[in-house]
TrEMBL record:
This is Probable cysteine--tRNA ligase, mitochondrial. Its cofactor is Zn(2+). Keywords: Aminoacyl-tRNA synthetase, ATP-binding, Ligase, Metal-binding, Mitochondrion, Nucleotide-binding, Protein biosynthesis, Zinc. Belongs to the class-I aminoacyl-tRNA synthetase family. Its EC number is 6.1.1.16. Mitochondrial cysteine-specific aminoacyl-tRNA synthetase that catalyzes the ATP-dependent ligation of cysteine to tRNA(Cys). One of its GO terms (molecular function) is ATP binding. One of its GO terms (biological process) is cysteinyl-tRNA aminoacylation. Residues 72-368 form the tRNA synthetases class I catalytic domain. It comes from Anabas testudineus. Pfam families: tRNA-synt_1e. The gene is CARS2. InterPro entries: Cys-tRNA-ligase, Cys-tRNA/MSH_ligase, Rossmann-like_a/b/a_fold, tRNA-synt_1_cat_dom, tRNAsynth_Ia_anticodon-bd.
């Protein structure tokens, strides 16, 4: 019954519950509401249903509103997919990662099943032009870049949608969609064989999004009734791909692709009602505006999508322009991953609100890398404390437990505030993990730090960041490297402990290091040299009194990490 579905994926739910959820999606989606061409059509209608307890900024209402779903525990979500004619770049990736984070928050923190659909635009003017340049068919171009896009998203840990839909596999449904809009009195065909949506037929309902006022419309036939009218069907030109239709040979317009495939009839994905629609802010007008107009005209309903979420642009620092293929100012995902990790780009996205524009630069990425490094170092230190390798003063447990905060995520997915709460917890945890030379008789709190580590890892997992299985941990050779570093650090600690042993007389020993055995001082220096030589190789050894901890980092240590090593060198003996 789902001919347009190319892949289904539902993580972490029972098969029975999935079946019930899907049954509810495809039956409840058929209800329709009245379609009246009045000025009230611009006003957002608060839906009835299940109140999630979250608030989101809804572009339709132009303010934060309670997130209310048609069915309890289920969100239907559609996002605009790529036009596959070239490599995916970081501007695309930033938007997809941000909405992936939002979906993860809904599903993993608030227990809402997200049924996410995405349309792949695999026929378009740009694809046709690229095929002429490469002297291959448009299908070859589209399939090649579609697969590359999917690989890039997986490399950035973006959860695939429940369903991918290709436009070219659903043209017959698009034709039927257009025919119904014409029957409903909201579209017309020209003598040349184009079909346009009739903006005038819906009165003042057009203009829900910022940018619609004084719109000039798209270029097209001189037979258009209104310059704002947009193409639903475009007649074919010589040497272009085409499909047969009641209006002659042609292909779908860009705006109609998404609405018709996702929301057309009983055999398709969401029917006449959609909970959430997402995309970049540049798509709000005219693309999303036109999607709404044609979908509500087709279904004769007052509100097709209840919530529109728009992400801010990614800019190269110092530029007012968004990162874009047309402006030739983009960085491909593949090139980016040569220098940075998926975890670092996710943290980069988390440090700003999803609706905000974000500046791309080495400095902003360095901030993300340092934040991840700080969290990773705390986790290593806490684990060393739990194992008894790090000795500290008594821990003030109440101070740490008060730092837990995830309420920010219920307020329009405020990830900067949530990350701030995590970093605050890490800061206060680090304040408690100060090494002491002796801990005899000190009450230990390993359960507390175990809970803190689990909590932080769970929060990061919600965001799609896994510090335990980073790029450096994938191969089995890394596992062997860790075992070697563990043994090396243990041997070094034994040697260092022997060298730091004090003589009975405090006045004995070296003048510069009173109490130590002079003949053992070279051993201390050799231990320090080994620690410093390993740091540039990504193995950081930190001396904690008489014991030591270690961690493996990707690349060279940060300036903060180097300062910590210098401090260790000053105080190690």
């Amino acid at each position: 019954p789902f001919p347009c579905v190319s892949m289904w994926r539902f993580p972490g739910r029972s098969v029975l519950r999935r079946a019930k959820v899907l049954c509810g999606v495809f039956t409840a989606a058929q209800s329709a509401c009245s379609f009246k061409c009045t000025s009230s059509g611009k006003r957002w209608i608060k839906p009835s249903g299940f109140d999630t307890g979250l608030k989101v900024f809804n572009s339709l209402a132009k303010q934060k509103e309670p997130l209310i779903l048609a069915r309890e525990g289920l969100a239907t979500w559609y996002s605009c997919g790529p036009t596959v004619y070239d490599h995916a770049h970081l501007g695309h990736a930033c938007s997809y990662i941000r909405f992936d984070i939002l979906q993860r928050i809904l599903s993993r923190l608030f227990g809402i099943t997200v049924v996410h659909a995405m349309v792949i635009t695999d026929i378009d003017d740009k694809i046709i032009k690229r095929s002429w340049e490469e002297n291959v068919s448009p299908t070859v171009i589209a399939r090649m870049y579609e697969e590359e896009f999917k690989r890039d998203m997986l490399s950035l840990k973006v959860t695939p949608p429940a369903v991918y839909v290709r436009v070219t596999e659903n043209v017959h449904h698009i034709v039927a969609f257009i025919e119904r809009i014409i029957r409903n009195g909201h579209a017309y065909a020209t003598k040349e064989g184009d079909v346009y949506f009739d903006i005038g037929s819906i009165g003042d309902r057009y203009g829900k999004f910022v940018g619609a006022v004084d719109a000039q419309g798209e270029p097209g036939s001189s037979d258009k009734r209104d310059q704002r009218d947009f193409a639903l069907w475009k007649r074919s030109k010589p040497q272009e791909p085409y499909w047969e239709s009641p209006w002659g040979r042609g292909r779908p317009g860009w705006h109609i692709e998404f609405s018709s495939v996702i929301a057309c009839n009983e055999n398709h994905v969401f029917g006449s009602q959609l909970d959430i629609h997402s995309g970049g802010i540049d798509l709000a007008f005219p693309h999303h505006e036109n999607e709404v107009a044609q979908s509500e005209a087709y279904h004769q309903c007052g509100q097709w999508a209840n919530y529109f979420l728009h992400s801010g642009h990614l800019h190269l620092k110092g530029s007012a322009e968004k990162m874009s293929k047309s402006l030739k100012n983009y960085i491909t995902v593949k090139d980016f991953l040569q220098s940075y990790s998926a975890n670092e780009f996710r943290m980069f996205c988390l440090l700003t609100k999803y609706r905000s524009a974000i500046d791309y630069s080495d400095d902003t990425l360095s901030e993300a890398r340092i934040s991840l490094g700080t969290i990773s170092t705390f986790i290593h230190n806490a684990q060393a404390y739990i194992k008894g390798q790090l000795h500290c003063s008594p821990v003030q447990e109440a101070v740490l437990w008060e730092r837990y905060l995830v309420k920010a995520l219920a307020d329009d997915f405020d990830t900067p505030r949530a990350i701030g709460a995590v970093m605050n917890l890490v800061y206060h945890g680090n304040c408690q993990l100060q090494p002491v030379s002796t801990s005899d008789g000190v009450t230990r709190s390993p359960a507390l730090f175990g809970a803190m580590v689990s909590y932080i890892q769970d929060v990061l997992d919600i965001f799609g960041i896994d510090l335990l299985h980073s790029k450096a941990d994938v191969s089995s050779s890394c596992g062997r490297l860790k075992a070697v570093v563990e043994q090396l650090t243990h041997f070094r600690s034994e040697v260092r402990g022997f060298a730091l042993a004090r003589q009975n007389s405090a006045s004995a020993g070296s003048p510069s290091k009173p109490g130590l055995y002079p003949e053992r001082i070279p051993l201390i220096e050799a231990c320090d040299t080994l620690r410093n030589d390993l740091a540039p190789l990504g193995v950081l050894i930190k001396d904690r009194g008489a014991s030591s901890t270690w961690e493996i980092t990707e690349g060279k240590p940060s300036q903060k990490g180097q300062r910590d090593l210098d401090k260790d060198q000053e105080t190690s003996s």
